[in-house]
Amino acid sequence: MFAFYKKHNNKLYNKLIELSRDKFFYEKIKLTDDFQTRILLIFFHLAIILKKAKGKKYQKKTQSVFDNIFLNIEYHIRELGYGDVAVNKKMKTLSKIFYDILFNIEKNGNDTSLDIDNLLIKYFFLSDKKNGKLVKLADYLSKFKNFCFALDINIMLNGSIDFKYR
Questions:
Q1: Into how many domains does the chain fold?
Q2: Chain Cα centroid distance, residue 103
Q3: Residue 36: Cβ within 10 Å count
Q4: Is 2 part of any domain?
Q5: 4 burial via Cβ count (<10 Å: 0-12, 13-18, 19+)
């Protein structure tokens, strides 16, 4: 009769939203300011965070973080007016994209720089290296990775990330 929902801590999700709304992406790199781009930026940030927290010790915590973030994304898609069938289809597509990003970032190893140019080209269509957009975005993500890898995992998973790219 009564439903009891597990209370979620949305601090990390809110931080990822904040990071994905940074003017740097839209003014300097000229990414399109739309839902899809912001979701992709959230996925790249989250994949880096989950790479840092990889291991059995943090398995439950990272699964909880993953579930919470995808639940929030699902809520936002529903708020955009999509029906149940469309939401399920969109979530399936988004989870495939996220796992592709996660797999490619994990494949990168523990290098200090991220070699994800092909991934950025694939999802952001930044194929022109001459204008520097691809280089700038890759540099941003590399610095974000280095920043995250210097943080304590629990602090990071709780959303206490104060990253400023400049």
A1: 1
A2: 13
A3: 11
A4: no
A5: exposed
Two tokens, residue 53: 């927290």
Task: Name the nearest CA neighbour of 69 among 43, 90, 97.
Answer: 43
Q: Which domain holds residue 60?
A: 11-157
Distances (CA, A) of 112 to 99, 138, 163: 21, 12, 17
Amino acid at 131: N
Question: Is residue 166 assigned to a domain?
Answer: no
The two three-digit tokens of residue 137, written as one number: 């975005």
165 within a domain of the structure (yes/no): no
Query: Assign residue 77 a region: left if phi > 0, alpha if psi is -120 to 50, beta otherwise?
Result: alpha
Q: Where are the alpha helices (DSSP H) in 6-132?
A: 11-20, 23, 35-52, 59-79, 84-107, 117-124
Check pLDDT > 60 for residue 1: no
Residue 44 lies inside a defined structural domain of this protein: yes
Contacts of 129 (CB under 8 A, 6+ apart): 117, 135
Question: What pLDDT, in 10s, does the model give residues 28-58?
Answer: 999 999 999 999 999 999 999 999 888 778 8
